[in-house]
Design goal:
The chain is α/β, with parallel strands linked by helices. It has 8 helices and 12 strands. The longest helix has 19 residues, at 107-125. Residues 3-118 form the Response regulatory domain.
Length: 235
């Protein structure tokens, strides 16, 4: 679930979005018109999320959104617009959009919205997801973790952190998102609790915790589960 289609006619904005999404591990397709975007989507139906500008030449974003929804209810759609009127948001959502982002936006905000949407989509379809890379087997349904066949004891908090990373399937998750999802929006403690728990998990599942290969740090943002696989020496 790492493929994203960006439909945006302004080249500078489109380039800005592409660079930042690729930085966080997404495979990105791009189009400068709704018509071109729809063709790309028809050829790549495993695209998970579409970032769709409202003001496009020819067919606008509202029309494109409606056309996509007539054929596919499963793909995630986030509308992008410089408009701030409430009715524009309502119009987009009524046409089938899942979320709405107002320009200008920061890279972290956009990535966080994409990740949040993908998590909601995964929670509806992957309740029994299993991950068996790196010699570490994570069974989300049974809440069991094994390393090279040996059971690993994780606290409920540690498992919840690992679960979010694994289900992101190679995409980075911000520290703030981990904090909100695991500890709750009203958590009033030290945000460094995220880093502390990441360190504990690494001590338990990494072959070399001082040089982690499974849970990667994305500097200035958060963490990512490396789903590319390791060799038998943990490299």
């Amino acid at each position: 679930m790492n493929k994203i289609l960006v439909i945006e006619d302004e080249e500078n904005i489109r380039g800005f979005i592409l660079v930042n999404l690729k930085r966080f591990g997404y495979q990105v397709f791009e189009a400068e018109s709704a018509e071109d975007g729809l063709k790309i989507y028809e050829q790549n139906e495993d695209i998970s999320v579409i970032l769709l500008d409202v003001m496009l030449p020819g067919m606008d974003g509202f029309q494109a959104c409606q056309q996509i929804r007539e054929k596919d209810q499963s793909v995630g759609i986030i509308m992008l617009t410089a408009k701030t009127q409430e009715m524009d948001k309502v119009h987009g959502l009524m046409n089938g959009a899942d979320d709405y982002v107002i320009k200008p936006f920061s890279p972290n905000e956009l990535v966080a919205r994409v990740q949040s949407l993908m998590r909601r989509m995964r929670s509806a379809t992957n309740s029994s997801l299993k991950n068996e890379t790196h010699g570490v087997k994570v069974d989300l349904q049974k809440r069991i973790v094994k390393k090279d066949g040996v059971h690993i004891d994780l606290s409920p908090i540690e498992f919840s952190v690992l679960e979010l990373l694994v289900t992101a399937q190679g995409s980075a998750i911000s520290r703030n998102d981990l904090l909100d999802e695991v500890w709750g929006l009203n958590f009033a403690g030290d945000p460094k609790v995220v880093d502390v728990n990441i360190r504990r998990i690494r001590q338990k599942i990494e072959y070399d915790p001082s040089n982690p290969k499974m849970i990667e740090t994305v500097w200035g943002f958060g963490y990512r589960w490396n789903d590319k696989g390791l060799d038998t020496n943990g490299n």
